[in-house]
Amino acid sequence: MAQDDSAGRSFDLPEAFLDYLTSTPYSAEEYHALLQSPEERYVRIRDPTLSLATIAQRLQVDVTELVEVSWTKRFAQRHPTLRVFRIPETAAVRQSDLYDSGDVFGVDASSIACVGALDPEPCDHVLEICCAPGTKLCCLADLCTVTGVDINRQRLTVARSQVKRCKLSNSVKGLWLADGRSWAGDGQELMSEGLTPRDRKQTRKRPKVEAFAPDVFDGVLVDAECAHDGSLKHIRKFFDERGKTSKLQSLEEHMPWLSEAKRTELAQLQFELLCRGFQLLKEGGKLIYCTCSFSEAQNEEVIRRFLVNAGAGAGDERHVDCAGAEAPAKPRSAVSPGLRPPTGHRVPLRPAAQRHGRPVHRAAAERARRRGSGGGMVRRTDSSWWMGRNKTQRERLILVGTLISRIP
Ligand SMILES: C[S@@+](CC[C@H](N)C(=O)[O-])C[C@H]1O[C@@H](n2cnc3c(N)ncnc32)[C@H](O)[C@@H]1O
């Protein structure tokens, strides 16, 4: 089984972090217990034809040490490239030929839930905003055509390497170095950078991302920048063997969102990323918003604000008209054990002219009236999902996701 180097270790949480924790559902003791829980390692096996015995042999582990993650099986049933296994720390992933061929891919199990919930069709074109270093992008590229956007060149370069390692270049239309809050097919495109003449010839066969108006993608994944307190693996890295925060400075550097002022900025960034993602979504398309933070302010509150406000700006005809949206129903103390199926819950709409109690442009209201819908609508197929397991279980919560559909 996985080596358990976290269990029993103590973590001397710094003051700034303790203060941050007050914005999450976890007390210091509970979070500390999470950090102490056994470290887990997962891989996605992309080739569905590989047997357990072959995978075990190639990763140099005993076949009994290879455990398929039960709650991701539902996604793998529909998309066989999304099989996820828990593996022991000792597994020789990088030394394996499966790694070289791109058939094995280190993941957080919960990343699969975001992709599985988006559930693209092979003919879909999906946009991932905040796509680097490419874990979910590669999952998506196994299923459909993908375009990725990220603001960090170094991370985007890693994403490009992953795409190449997995031989997915033909499914990735572009990797754009740009600000996801305002991206419109502009910025620097990294997939076509440094191509050989032969590559370039092949690239020409792929349609370029055209300069486009909104409303182009069948699906959008907004994997927003966040405080990543849900990514325990990353947090643990900042403590030394004795659990001391000798790297306190670097923890704060690495988590610039600890202070309250920065948290407000972060929530605004997340809100804007979500709004832009929604603008780029086709009618009938699906959007997943997810983070690796436990904080409600970075999840439910961003969604709540989006549902109430997004698109209601002056002159924007693509209103999200859902003034009657319910607050996410899930109380944070009742983290769901595993994914709940979409409920098909439909957000009640108000007439466009009364939207948010503000006057709206007459022409927009008239268009909305003719469509009989109060403008563009959002159907929240599930108000707020806690993806993963409750915190007492092994595959525990890391990502929170919300599925939003744009319906005509
Ligand atoms: C949680 S990580 C994304 C992980 C990635 N989706 C994956 O599955 O590998 C968040 C990413 O957001 C990016 N980011 C932060 N601000 C951004 C912005 N304004 N526009 C686009 N990307 C941004 C960061 O560079 C970082 O790579």
List the SSEs and their pairings.
Layout (H helix, E strand, L loop, with lengths): L14 H7 L6 H9 L4 E5 L6 H7 L8 E2 L4 H6 L4 E5 L9 H4 L3 E4 L1 H10 L6 E5 L5 H7 L3 E6 L2 H13 L6 E6 L10 E2 L7 H9 L11 E7 L8 H5 L11 H7 L5 H20 L1 E11 L8 H10 L52 H10 L5 E11 L11 E9 L1
Parallel strand pairs: 5-6, 5-9, 6-7, 9-10
Antiparallel strand pairs: 1-3, 1-4, 2-3, 7-8, 10-12, 11-12
Protein described:
By secondary structure, the protein is an alpha/beta fold. Among the domains are: 93 residues, Rossmann fold (3-Layer(aba) Sandwich); 175 residues, no CATH class. The chain is 30% helix and 18% strand. It is built from 14 helices and twelve strands. It has an eight-stranded mixed β-sheet, sandwiched between helices. The chain has a four-stranded antiparallel β-sheet with strand order 2-3-1-4. Strand 5, helix 7 and strand 6 form a beta-alpha-beta unit. It is globular. It starts with 14 loop residues before the first helix and ends with a strand. 42% of the residues are buried. About 24% of the residues have low confidence. The structure holds S-adenosylmethionine. S-adenosylmethionine binds next to helix 7 and strand 6. Keywords: Methyltransferase, RNA-binding, S-adenosyl-L-methionine, Transferase. Belongs to the class I-like SAM-binding methyltransferase superfamily. RsmB/NOP family. InterPro entries: MeTrfase_RsmB-F_NOP2_cat, MeTrfase_RsmB-F_NOP2_dom, RCMT, SAM-dependent_MTases_sf. This is SAM-dependent MTase RsmB/NOP-type domain-containing protein.
